[in-house]
Write a structure and sequence with these properties.
- The complex is a heterodimer of chains A (about 260) and B (about 325).
- Chain A contains 8 helices and no strands.
- With about 260 residues, chain A is an all-alpha fold.
- The longest helix of chain A is centred in the C-terminal third of the chain and has 38 residues.
- Chain A starts with a helix and ends in an 8-residue tail after the last helix.
- Chain B is an alpha+beta fold and about 325 residues long.
- Chain B folds into 3 domains: about 90 residues; about 80 residues, no CATH class; about 90 residues, no CATH class.
- Chain B is built from 8 helices and 14 strands.
- In chain B, strands 1, 6, 7, 8, 13 and 14 form a 6-stranded antiparallel β-sheet that branches. A 4-stranded antiparallel β-sheet of chain B has the order 2-3-4-5, with no helix packed on it.
- In chain B, a hairpin with a 5-residue loop joins β2 and β3.
- In chain B, α2 runs antiparallel to α5.
- The longest helix of chain B is centred in the first third of the chain and has 26 residues.
- Classes of the chains: A mainly alpha (about 260), B alpha+beta (about 325).
- The interface between A and B is large, with 50 and 49 residues.
């Protein structure tokens, strides 16, 4: 019910943003970002409600992960507008809102059962919570970088492309350390404590490494190519698809230690 | 004009080489992420079709992460990282304190230590699985003794496991009780002991002619004057207390009635028993379920290096991008 309300708020926010795209001379829309904030807060309340019910932080299943990611993106969409993070102020929150809506739509589908279940022993770990939350916070920034990289590739205006490049780089530069800590470091520490081995080349681990290597390649390539090559933003787009495959695709196409995630 | 050695050094430390190596590692990891790893050779033709399956095995794609190509690429990456870090560090040390940026150096050193720890772990890690019932002990490789004093298993109302805890003592003299849970291993005597799994095992209780109880675990035999009584399995067949062929009895063996192989003066008989039935010279009294705790005893010399590597990577990666973002306005 709470997640559904948040979904409706995001849809309304999206419609308002679309209407304002066609009103180029109108005053900047002030409502949609607040609707995104309200949706983010509602999703946070949903996570807290579930956490109280299971007496553990509710980040141990696919439904909860999708809700958490949508929550982060809704809050980011608000922050981008409110704190005026991007010079291309309208498109990035719009992209973040769309991705948040997609995640919530997936959360409401049969692939993500919403039943509240307390965690099995392997999932009762503070390191797991750090692993999941940091990974998703990093991926929320990757999502912003993904939207910005698409715009960077699509625009023919050099100044706009430069601004988008900065936004892309900043999003990845913020998301990368958080993702590194969450997906690789905290993930490995949790694996060592739960299974007695840091790394077992489980499909989820392998794909998380591929995600990390892709963004590592982006950061290094940008060092030498700056914003002159289309390959640089293309890597960010590829990186996000790989990250989403790691999050969702691996769960349904492969079996491994992360089969509950 | 740079000498060949200088150019070689420049190539070894170059970002371009790093990007090429990262790209190769990504491609190899994709292969390892798509093709199931470490399966028997027959699995691949069956899964992917004859020719593709054979090609996967031929190219070593069934064991990508221990293949020569992967190991050489990783080694080259380590060399590239070492030379790059050395070059960067010498340059940074020449700058004033305020202008120095050591984030990438710490990050790169962290990755190198992590790689060293990973190699050490791969070469020295040992794992021994110990199965213990309450009250049982097992010797650890260093000669000390691990004793399971209690095992607690709880489930949620829907039947899913809630917690499994082994209470143990370790050592020759100490009687201090320690707990091992999933996600909370015990680190003692240079070992890490993990709660790996648990299982229930049935034991049968037999009464000898004097009325004394004898307990047999599955697969154990009890000598008799004419031969032995061997506890084979537990049978679910609804028509117990009769003799059948071993194959037909074992086909349904799972719960309820135990199946014994009885040898008496050279003659062998398979007996499926109900409580009170005669099994050789014994009377079958009943079955008791006992919980067995599966503990994994791991020794890993790479452990401290991996931990140190993670700490440095975490510090390095945050320093690098905090310093970069300071000068960046979106």
């Amino acid at each position: 019910m709470i997640a559904t309300s948040a979904f409706i708020l995001l849809i309304v926010s999206l419609i308002i943003q679309i209407v304002h795209f066609f009103k180029t001379k109108a005053a900047p829309d002030k409502v949609s970002s607040w609707l995104s904030l309200a949706a983010g807060v509602l999703l946070l309340i949903e996570i807290i409600r579930r956490s109280v019910a299971i007496q553990f932080i509710a980040l141990t299943g696919l439904f909860e992960s999708l809700v958490f990611l949508a929550c982060l993106l809704s809050l980011l969409a608000f922050a981008m507008r409110f704190f005026n993070w991007s010079r291309e102020n309208r498109v990035l929150p719009f992209g973040a809102t769309i991705i948040a809506i997609i995640f919530l739509a997936l959360a409401s589908s049969p692939i993500a059962p919403s039943e509240v279940k307390p965690p099995v022993p392997a999932l009762q770990s503070g390191w797991l919570i750090l692993h999941v939350s940091f990974t998703f916070i990093g991926e929320a920034f990757f999502a912003v970088g993904f939207v910005s990289a698409i715009l960077q590739l699509l625009t023919k205006d050099k100044d706009k492309a430069k601004n988008y490049d900065r936004t892309t780089y900043t999003s990845i530069a913020v998301g990368y350390p958080i993702f590194t800590a969450g997906a690789l470091i905290f993930g490995a520490i949790w694996a060592e404590k739960a299974w007695g081995i840091w790394w077992s080349w489980d499909p989820k681990e392998t794909w998380a490494l591929i995600t990390w290597l892709t963004y590592t390649a982006y950061l290094h390539l940008r060092l030498v190519r700056k914003n002159t090559s289309k390959l640089v933003p293309a890597l960010v787009i590829i990186g996000f698809f790989v990250a989403m495959f790691t999050f969702l695709g691996v769960n349904f196409l492969m079996t491994g230690l992360h089969s509950y995630a | 004009m740079k000498s060949y050695l200088d150019r070689f050094y420049d190539t070894l430390r170059s970002v371009k080489l790093a990007i090429v190596l990262l790209a190769i590692l990504v491609l190899l990891a994709i292969v390892g992420g798509v093709v199931p790893q470490g399966k028997p050779v027959d699995f691949y033709p069956a899964q992917f079709g004859g020719s593709i399956g054979k090609l996967i095995v031929l190219l070593g794609f069934n064991r990508v992460f221990s293949s020569i190509v992967f190991l050489i690429t990783t080694a080259l990456f380590a060399v590239n990282l070492t030379v790059c870090t050395f070059h960067r560090l010498t340059q940074e040390l020449g700058k004033s304190w305020k202008k120095r940026r050591h984030g990438p150096d710490i990050l790169h050193v962290g990755i190198l230590i992590l790689l060293f720890g990973a190699v050490l772990t791969a070469r020295t890690r040992t794992e021994n699985i110990i199965e213990l019932q309450e009250g049982q002990s097992s010797a650890l490789p260093d000669g000390s003794t691990l004793t399971l004093t209690a095992f607690n298993f709880e489930t949620y109302p829907d039947g899913r496991p809630k917690t499994w805890v082994s209470t143990v003592t370790v050592g020759t003299h100490t009687q201090t009780q320690r707990q091992i849970k999933v996600n909370a291993p015990l680190r003692e005597h240079g070992y890490s002991i993990y709660q790996k799994y648990w299982k229930n095992e049935s034991e049968v209780v037999l009464l000898d002619p004097t009325g004394m109880e004898i307990t047999l675990q599955q697969g154990m035999r009890q000598p008799t004057t004419g031969g032995f009584v061997f506890f084979m399995a537990i049978n679910t067949d609804e028509n117990p207390s009769q003799t059948q062929s071993p194959a037909s009895l074992l086909a349904g063996a799972n719960q309820n009635n135990p199946v014994f192989l009885v040898e008496d003066r050279g003659k062998r008989l398979v007996v499926k028993a109900n409580e009170g039935d005669k099994v050789g010279p014994f009377i079958y009294k009943g079955t008791i379920e006992k919980s067995i705790s599966g503990l994994s005893v791991v020794s890993d010399k790479g452990y401290p290096y991996v931990v140190a590597g993670f700490v440095l990577v975490a510090i390095g990666v945050f320093l690098t991008y905090v310093q970069k973002l300071k000068g960046l306005v979106i």
